[in-house]
Write a structure and sequence with these properties.
The complex is a heterodimer of chains A (224) and B (200).
Chain A: H1 3-22, E1 26-32, E2 35-40, E3 48-54, E4 62-67, E5 73-76, E6 84-93, E7 100-103, E8 122-123, E9 139-147, E10 150-156, E11 164-171, E12 178-183, E13 187-193, E14 200-210, E15 217-220
Antiparallel strand pairs in A: 1-2, 2-5, 3-4, 3-6, 6-14, 6-15, 7-14, 8-13, 9-10, 10-13, 11-12, 11-14
Chain B: H1 3-14, E1 34-36, E2 40-45, E3 48-51, E4 54-57, E5 67-72, E6 75-76, E7 79-91, E8 94-103, E9 109-117, E10 121-124, E11 130-132, E12 140-148, E13 152-157, E14 160-166, E15 171-185, E16 188-199
Antiparallel strand pairs in B: 1-16, 2-5, 3-4, 4-16, 5-15, 6-15, 7-12, 7-16, 8-9, 8-15, 9-10, 10-11, 12-13, 13-14
The chains are: A mainly beta (224), B mainly beta (200).
């Protein structure tokens, strides 16, 4: 008589495992012996996904990409052969400021006398709203052009539980914003040094928290 | 580990799918490798300062010897692997070398150098090949170098092979930190972590 409940629990467990395997958030395929392609189902409403890898399931995970919300795939190419790779994705949540457009002077000239002290991240802190709340949006964003490659961003911290701030930038002609800097919690000032294709760009600042990790997926690369 | 991950890991372990492994046991590339801990000296020149694994060039001077580095012990022959992660926390300057493999006599000098250019382009100093873009300030980047001293030096950035360089010779050593290249300048602050060495 006691076997039936045990059997039922076992069947439910197997069904749950099957469900997990049939519909995982993240899947991977080894497209060549040393190329892995990831596919994921983005979390609705998230500001994007962070794609991470490690060489052990419980190892130190390293960011491969901050993927914009509409992106659902990532190719990790030319991998270390005969090595285990583990992957996960995590949603990036949190409100961003309105955008600010910047235009930098032409050229690469940066005066040697500029020690870039203005660029160091500085903390203000004092926010009181959880990142999940719209009131956590950073306030009073300003973007000041300092020289041909440098923009000083300043803003107010309104968030109480942020994991940090992201500087997001969309160069003229680009389809999406990309993360140009990941900063610590409570930071309210940072000087971004730009890439050559970022002379004309739209910028914003986001208070963020990472959401729950997806399932892990793993691949072992082959010989080359 | 999140609750969901713990559940997935628990199921995997119960079904025998979880490969035994911890960060210390993770191996990359064909082994077997033997872990070892070479000694090092700290080098501070010019406006370079070292605080444990934080390396800083505090000036924007575009001349002279500006460096903040760890210089590891010389290795001779065989195959060596270096693994480490760096995070650029600020970069006002450009062309700052982060990791080098040096050759010792009779043709002593920099054999391979990974550097970062203004805005985050990683490149090989010799030849100028782009190794990766978007060494985003604040984001950790993992570096693995595998050096068969008799044949080649391979560089992996975030797991992907980005550079291969022919090698011959016997005596080399690893350096990392922040170092002004001949055409570069600070300031820069770089934090390294998870430094490991193997040989076979």
């Amino acid at each position: 008589m006691t076997r039936r409940p045990t059997l039922l629990v076992g069947l439910l467990f197997l069904a749950a495992c099957g469900q997990e395997q049939q519909d995982p958030v993240l899947t991977s395929e080894l497209t060549t012996p040393v190329d892995v392609t990831l596919h994921w189902r983005p979390e609705p409403g998230a500001a994007g996904q962070v794609v991470e890898y490690a060489n052990a399931a419980d190892g130190e995970y390293t960011v491969l990409e901050f993927a914009p919300p509409g992106k659902t795939t990532y190719k990790h190419p030319d991998l270390i052969p005969e090595t285990q790779f583990y992957y996960r994705v995590r949603p990036v949540n949190g409100p961003a400021t309105a955008t600010v457009d910047i235009t930098l002077p032409p050229g690469e000239e940066v005066p040697e006398t500029d020690g870039h002290e203005w660029a160091e991240p500085r903390k203000g802190g004092g926010g009181t709203h959880p990142v999940a709340s719209p009131e956590a949006v950073p306030g009073a964003l300003k973007a000041e052009v300092k020289h041909a490659n440098g923009i000083l961003f300043t803003w107010e911290d309104h968030a109480s539980d942020e994991e940090g701030y992201l500087i997001e930038l969309k160069p003229a002609g680009a389809a999406d914003y990309r993360v140009a800097a990941q900063l610590e919690p409570d930071v309210t000032s940072f000087g971004l040094i730009t890439l050559p294709d970022e002379k004309i760009a739209s910028c914003r600042v986001r208070a963020f928290r990472f959401g729950a990790s997806s399932n892990l997926t793993q691949q072992r690369t082959g010989k080359v | 580990m999140s609750k969901r991950l713990r559940i997935v890991a628990g199921i995997a372990a119960a079904t025998g799918l979880l490969v035994a492994g911890s960060p210390a046991q993770a191996q990359v590339e064909t082994g077997p490798w033997t872990s070892y801990s070479p000694s090092f000296t700290v080098q501070e020149r010019g406006c370079g300062t070292v605080d444990n694994l934080t390396f800083q060039l505090t000036c924007s001077t575009a001349s002279g010897d500006q460096r903040a580095e760890r210089r590891y012990a010389t290795y001779s022959g065989g195959t060596r692997q270096f693994e480490g992660s760096f995070r650029i926390t600020s970069l006002g300057g450009t062309r700052v070398s982060l990791k080098q493999t040096f050759r010792e006599g009779p043709t002593a000098g920099p054999f391979w150098m990974l550097a970062v250019e203004r805005g985050g382009r990683l490149y090989a100093v010799h030849g100028g090949d782009t190794i990766a873009t978007g060494a985003t300030v604040g984001t950790t980047v993992r570096v693995n170098t595998v050096h068969n001293t008799a044949t080649e030096h391979r560089t992996y950035i975030n797991g992907s092979r980005k550079h291969t360089y022919a090698s011959s010779g016997t005596s080399f050593y690893d350096k990392f930190g922040a170092y002004r290249t001949s055409s570069g300048q600070g300031p820069a602050t770089v934090v390294w972590s998870n430094i490991r060495f193997w040989r076979k």
